[in-house]
TrEMBL record, chain B:
It is an enzyme of class 3 (hydrolase). Residues 236-530 form the Penicillin-binding protein transpeptidase domain. GO terms for cellular component: plasma membrane. Pathway: Cell wall biogenesis; peptidoglycan biosynthesis. This is Peptidoglycan D,D-transpeptidase FtsI. Its main location: membrane. Catalyzes cross-linking of the peptidoglycan cell wall at the division septum. The active site is at S283 (acyl-ester intermediate). Residues 47-194 form the Penicillin-binding protein dimerisation domain. The gene is ftsI. It comes from the Bacteria. InterPro entries: Beta-lactam/transpept (IPR050515), Beta-lactam/transpept-like (IPR012338), FtsI_transpept (IPR037532), PBP_dimer (IPR005311), PBP_dimer_sf (IPR036138), PCN-bd_Tpept (IPR001460).
């Protein structure tokens, strides 16, 4: 046995990408710390136990890591072959949340399916499923180079976006649309197809904001939050105060004042502000850099995949990089007042079971992509593929 | 691959933009943001100050503040927290349904007292439920150990610790401390999260030492109350003054009230009648007309006035005595309280001189004790005096005075003709002014002693001490003039005669039954209070043998 392990190649002993894993571990750890601090007051007030929400958060970290392990076992090939099935599932989930009796309304939005212990937020999982579909569909050259093929993909995406807007969840709609558009762009869809899409989507975004008074209010508040602080600008001003208090080095863990109910959603959408308030701007920049390392690493994995002509692997890595990266950047941008307020979690850091589970699945898929790019692994995968093909032929 | 590079560069650029924005916010807006943060979180919190104590001259407490806890709620928060309101209601000892209704009705407000002034341990128990929207405030509750006995003089505070009556009101500023302030950090719901620093400590209020001697106060109150009950009288007042200092040793009224439990308070019982209610003093004013006669030089104590045939016509009015008393000297006029005698005497005197002396001893003047709501009374000030006006003023009609003013006037006689400003406080030095000669005062004192030893004031006599005083029986003014059956019974006097220690005035309003005069209703109260007071104050007796001639029923 001892001799056998000695001759095993390096990557056999280290089956996942260490850099990605390190980034994820750092983000999860910082997340637990911040959720513990930011949720303590609201936990005490709502549940009579300061640790209630962070305990839930830790349980979900555990669950999401387990789910990640399971996902890691799934060969990319399986995802690739399930493309249209995933679309079907996505639509089913997104329609289900809108059906009264199945979906649950919270704060005027139909986003959740109550499952007792926790509520399933369909859109979080749809993000991943649709990435798999888009990647596998666009892997076929005719699909991305012909107008009809591209139109089919676009239709599937627009359908998802439309369902998200019905909830309504403009934030998620913007994130998934940008990410899928990015994947189309990266897959090599001609610019003559893409440019009209950009024009149309910007125009529809403008319409969507103008027709919803609360969105318009948020936009106005975004331009002058202090003037609108008792209307749309309230959260933003409170988030900015956290930035002011935090300064470069922060007030120390647990010393946030904004979490004393001043900043709504301190442990979810605005956890980044609490990060700045407690740990300081430098720590916040480091966290942002960790996100960038994660995103760039995913793009690098995609680059390797493209080089080896493993288009599906590459597009999946791209999609995951885009989903996590765009959502993180929008969330941080919202926190610092660079973007209008949107209810989006910060992946891996914010409290929220759905976001954690879905993001860890994406990370697992990314690790699986990297794993299958390795010489040994990919050859095994190709052997399996070849075998299947011959079986099909016979 | 170019497209991949473009995406990577976009990410890096956007990250850079966000970092740039964060650094900009930090450098440019930091001070503004910190200030905005403080504006929303740092509050000045009031620290209630301890109210000063009121004590009697021996240091016995009359009003004490003890720390209590008031519970208040933010109804909206409390209702929306889905907490167990029934339990809270039970602990507050209120009806759960009513309680819920009350909260529901005040949903739009953010502050509602649930219960004020709870004993701290009891409040602690409720607060330990730690219901959202339930808050507490530290306050002080005022307790009056002497209860109804000293209620009128001491007065009361309201639930907000502000003086409303009596000394509590008169010296409110002195007793009230200065509330302190502290900087605290509050969360969005107004809970104090941390004390940052005290801005100003609460300055406790100062104590007040009253001249009142609680032992005398109890005695006076008890005797007054007993007399009121015995005679089924409407009301009554008693005042005991210290001759040397002119301070009020006791001041009690009936009816009284319990300052510690004011839930079923009859407002009529709150008045300090001894100070606020002016009456016609009747015969108790006669000695001052005699004093003017003595001062005038045209009369001396043995000057005789013929009161036959028992009445006199002045203008078109007939002034009667109960019987024909023949020739009386000035002392006899007082001793037997002859209306005819004093009227005839008054008509020989300068009316302005009589009026001026009355004003000098304090009749119709604000007494200036500092007690809130002091009545001035009424002293006529005619430019021309008719005979009937001169006569009625002499026997105390057509003029009104409070028991306090009357006591002040008798104090002047007791002090040998020197009026002294009355005070409620133990250590206040008050001004004096001579209002009649020492000789006049001592002659008057001897006459007043005879009122007790030989005249209408016999029941004011006390064992072992000589007493000087004057009765008064005043017919009450009804709807159709003076009534025959309703009276005010007065006795005003001092003891011991040679070296007076105490002045006292007793007034009993509308005694029922046959005994309705100053001599039979008020004088006995005076006697028993003075006798007890002499013992309590250990005044040396000035008389060996008890000699009591039962005085006749007072008149006029």
């Amino acid at each position: 046995m001892a001799t056998e392990s000695a001759v095993m190649p390096m990557q056999e002993r280290c089956p996942v990408d260490m850099l990605t894993l390190a980034c994820v571990c750092v983000l999860l750890a910082v997340g637990v710390l911040l959720v513990a601090s930011a949720s303590s007051e609201i936990s005490a007030r709502e549940y009579g136990n300061t640790l209630y929400l962070v305990a839930r958060h830790i349980v979900f970290v555990g669950l999401s890591v387990s789910l990640g392990f399971l996902t890691l076992m799934i060969p990319l090939d399986l995802w690739q072959r399930s493309g249209w099935l995933l679309v079907l599932m996505s639509y089913l989930v997104l329609v289900a949340v809108l059906v009264p009796g199945i979906g649950k309304e919270v704060n005027g939005s139909m986003r959740w399916i109550p499952l007792g212990f926790f509520s399933l937020q369909g859109s979080e999982f749809v993000k991943l499923m649709m990435i798999m579909f888009v990647a596998s569909y666009l892997t076929v050259p005719e699909h991305r180079e012909r107008a009809l093929g591209f139109a089919k993909a676009l239709a599937a995406i627009v359908g998802v976006v439309a369902l998200l807007l019905l909830q309504p969840d403009l934030g998620s709609a913007v994130v998934v649309f940008s990410a899928y558009f990015g994947v189309m762009f990266l897959s090599g869809v001609p610019l003559r197809f893409l440019l009209p899409v950009i024009v149309a989507s910007v125009a529809s975004l403008a319409v969507l904001i103008l027709i919803a008074p609360y969105r318009l209010e948020r936009i106005l508040a975004f331009f002058d939050p202090w003037k609108h602080q008792y209307e749309g600008g309230y959260q933003l001003t409170q988030a900015l105060i956290a930035f002011g208090r935090g300064d470069w080095f922060g007030m120390g863990v647990g010393n946030s004042i904004q979490k004393l109910f001043f900043l709504p959603e301190a442990h979810t959408d605005f956890v980044y502000s609490i990060l700045v308030e407690e740990l300081g701007l430098l720590s916040a920049i480091i966290v942002l850099l960790v996100f960038m390392v994660l995103v760039l690493r995913a793009l690098w994995i995609a680059y390797i995949a493209f080089q080896r002509s493993m288009t599906f692997h590459g597009l999946v890595a791209c999609g995951i990089a885009l989903l996590i990266g765009i959502q993180a950047l929008i969330n941080m941008g919202v926190n610092v007042g660079a973007l209008p307020t949107k209810g989006l979690t910060l992946p891996l850091l914010s409290f929220g079971g759905n976001s954690l589970l879905a993001t860890m699945m994406m990370i697992a898929v990314l690790l699986r992509v990297e794993y299958e790019l390795r010489d040994g692994a990919s050859s095994i995968a190709q052997v399996a593929k070849r075998r299947r093909r011959t079986e099909n032929a016979s | 691959m170019i497209r991949l590079a473009i995406v990577a560069v976009c990410f890096v650029a956007l990250s850079g933009a966000i970092v740039g924005r964060m650094v900009y916010v930090n450098i440019n807006d930091r001070d503004f943001l910190q200030e905005q943060g403080d504006l929303r979180t740092i509050r000045l919190e009031r620290i209630n100050a301890h109210r000063g104590m009121i004590r009697d001259r021996l240091g016995k407490p009359l009003a004490i503040s003890s720390p209590v806890v008031s519970l208040w709620a933010n109804p909206n928060e409390l209702l929306s927290s889905s907490s167990d309101l029934n339990q809270l209601a039970t602990m507050l000892k209120v009806d759960p349904e009513e309680f819920a209704d009350r909260l529901e009705n005040s949903r739009s407000r953010s502050f509602v007292y649930l219960r004020r002034h709870m004993p701290p341990p009891e409040a602690e128990k409720i607060l330990s439920l730690s219901l959202p929207g339930l808050y507490s405030e530290k306050e002080y509750h005022r307790f009056y150990p002497a209860g109804e006995v000293a209620a009128h003089l001491v007065g009361v505070t309201n639930i907000d610790d502000r003086g409303q009556e009596g000394v509590e009101l008169a010296f409110d500023q002195w007793l009230t401390g200065v509330p302190g302030k502290k900087k605290v950090l509050k969360n969005l719901y107004g809970d104090i999260v941390a004390d940052i620093m005290p801005v100003a400590d609460a300055v406790p209020g100062r104590d007040i030492e009253l001249a009142m001697d609680l032992r005398l106060q109890y005695l006076a109150y008890r005797e007054l109350k007993a007399a009121i009950q015995r005679h089924e009288a409407q009301s009554g007042s008693i005042i005991v003054l210290d001759v040397a200092s002119g301070s009020v040793l006791a001041m009690a009224n009936q009816p009284s009230y319990n300052p510690n439990n004011r839930q079923r308070l009859d407002i009529a019982t709150v008045r300090n009648r001894a100070v606020t209610d002016a009456f016609e003093p009747g015969s108790t004013l006669k000695p001052f007309t005699v004093a003017v006669a003595l001062e005038s030089g045209s009369h001396h104590p043995l000057s005789r006035i013929d009161t036959s045939p028992g009445f006199v016509r002045v203008d078109d009015k007939t002034i009667p005595d109960p019987r024909d008393m023949g020739e009386l000297n000035l002392g006899d006029i007082l001793a037997h309280s002859s209306q005819v005698g004093i009227s005839k005497l008054a008509l020989t005197l300068d009316p302005f001189a009589v009026r001026d002396l009355l004003a000098d001893v304090g009749i119709g003047q604000i007494p200036g004790s500092g007690f809130p709501g002091e009545s001035q009374g009424y002293l006529p000030n005619h430019r021309r005096w008719t005979d009937i006006e001169r006569a009625t003023l002499a026997y105390g009609y057509g003029v009104t005075t409070t028991p306090l003013q009357l006591a002040n006037a008798y104090l002047a006689i007791a002090r040998g003709g020197v009026r002294k400003q009355i005070t409620l406080l133990a250590e206040e030095q008050t001004s004096t002014i001579r209002v009649m000669s020492e000789q006049t005062a001592s002659q008057l004192t001897r006459m007043l002693a005879k009122v007790v030893s030989d005249g209408t004031g016999g029941q004011a006599h006390i064992q072992g001490y000589t007493v000087a005083g004057k009765t008064g029986t005043v017919r009450k003014l009804g709807e159709s003039g003076y009534e025959d059956t309703r009276h005010l019974a007065f006795f005003a006097g001092f003891a011991p005669v040679q070296d007076p220690e105490l002045v006292a005035v007793v007034m009993i309003n509308d005694p029922a039954g046959d005994a309705n005069g100053g001599g039979s209703v008020a004088a006995p109260v005076f006697g028993s209070v003075m006798s007890g007071a002499m013992r309590i104050l250990k005044v040396a007796p000035d008389q060996q043998v008890a000699m009591s001639k039962g005085g006749g029923d007072a008149h006029g």
